[in-house]
Amino acid sequence: MSISAPRRSTSALDAVRQVLSRPLASYQIVLGLTAILLGLGLIMVLSASSVYALRLFDNSFYVVSRQAVFAVLGVIGFVAVLRLPWNVLRALVRPALLGTVVLIGLTFTPLGVEINGNRNWLPLFAGISVQPSELAKLALVLWIADLYARRYKYLGTPRYILTPMVPIAGAVAALVVAQKDLGTALVLFAVIVGMLWVAGLPGRHMWFMVLALGVVLIFFVATAPHRITRLLSFLDPTADPEGAGHQSIKAMMAFARGGFWGVGLGGSRQKWGALPEAHNDFILAVIGEELGLAGTLVLLSLFGMLGFVGFRIAMRSRDRFARYAAAGITIWLLAQAIINVGMVLGLLPVIGIPLPLISYGGSSLLATLLGMAFLAKCATTEPGAAQALAASRRQRRRSSKK
């Protein structure tokens, strides 16, 4: 007779499955991830920019306060997207893409402002500028989703997948490249390829599109001396430690000093001026130094969870537009995060691109929050989600009246 240890009624895996089986699981995960990443981003922007802001503006909170303004606007937009009906949101898709293209076009006029070699900014007020190409990412994803949802019955034919999506999306990407913003264009290329894959483009055509976009990318790199310098620096950062390889070397020093547990929030040395763009494109290096490998892995796991829930929504949604929109938004945010992380870790050449919801940048933050709002909206089209959400709201209203 053998005595075995008593089994638990449910294992950890069963508990996770039970949570995910709830109608509002995806919706609540998106809300939670948005809140956590936004809060962490504001904290790290404050930490990474405090010295820079004090030196330039005599106010340690100058940079984070500007980021907070866009965070508030983004949260307002987040709530508005969740409240608006689907038919209204879909009706705004085409005007939104047209509007962002017009705004990008305005950057080539005297209204455009050039920053760090990229002419992709438009001034608003009080020294605050907007970057239309950031908003174009979301607008393009939603336009493609709307197009494929309307053409769903014909997507078995490659011609209906490729046209007019590739010409129009390619034209938007070309405008961004003309702004000398190859980083944003690279994300748009990833969105184009990803959406072609989601739509079911056959492998032969898919490989041709990847090859064509690769040739275009190589051409734009080869025709810009500064991009060639960055590529050569990526292969050997120590060849020009005070020039093109400076950021990569300082980022590695930040990670090395942080170790596993980090030096503590606010304790970074690199943010004191050694690491350029410490609060922007290279904020991950500051996170690695202050929060260590442990904090970095937690952050990466959050983006991994975002990828999981985004594709889960795309597979479970009953609405075709929501299905394509969820997949496109997930591809966009994951591609941008992977490029940024790869750049900071020295696995990719240095390309100016922010880490979603974490890096400083009002336009990027606003566009990403709206994207997360659409992802949460898509989650309400999962089986039983809309009814559960309506019941939850009725319960809250009854509780508030008591």
TrEMBL record:
Localisation per UniProt entry: Cell membrane
One Pfam family linked to the record: FTSW_RODA_SPOVE
Transmembrane residue ranges: 29-54, 60-84, 96-113, 125-148, 160-178, 184-201, 208-228, 291-314, 326-351, 357-376
Annotated coiled-coil segments of the chain: none
Pathway(s) where this gene product acts: Cell wall biogenesis; peptidoglycan biosynthesis
Top-level class of the enzyme under EC nomenclature: transferase
GO biological process: cell division; cell wall organization; peptidoglycan biosynthetic process; regulation of cell shape
EC numbers for this chain: 2.4.99.28
Signal peptide: none
Keyword list, A-Z: Cell cycle, Cell division, Cell membrane, Cell shape, Cell wall biogenesis/degradation, Glycosyltransferase, Membrane, Peptidoglycan synthesis, Transferase, Transmembrane, Transmembrane helix
Membrane topology: Multi-pass membrane protein
Catalysed reactions, as listed in the record: [GlcNAc-(1->4)-Mur2Ac(oyl-L-Ala-gamma-D-Glu-L-Lys-D-Ala-D-Ala)](n)-di-trans,octa-cis-undecaprenyl diphosphate + beta-D-GlcNAc-(1->4)-Mur2Ac(oyl-L-Ala-gamma-D-Glu-L-Lys-D-Ala-D-Ala)-di-trans,octa-cis-undecaprenyl diphosphate = [GlcNAc-(1->4)-Mur2Ac(oyl-L-Ala-gamma-D-Glu-L-Lys-D-Ala-D-Ala)](n+1)-di-trans,octa-cis-undecaprenyl diphosphate + di-trans,octa-cis-undecaprenyl diphosphate + H(+)
A single Gene Ontology CC term: cell division site
Gene Ontology MF: a single term: peptidoglycan glycosyltransferase activity
Membership in a protein family: Belongs to the SEDS family. FtsW subfamily.
Main function: Peptidoglycan polymerase that is essential for cell division.
Entry protein name: Probable peptidoglycan glycosyltransferase FtsW
Natural source organism: Aeromicrobium phragmitis
Gene name linked to the record: ftsW
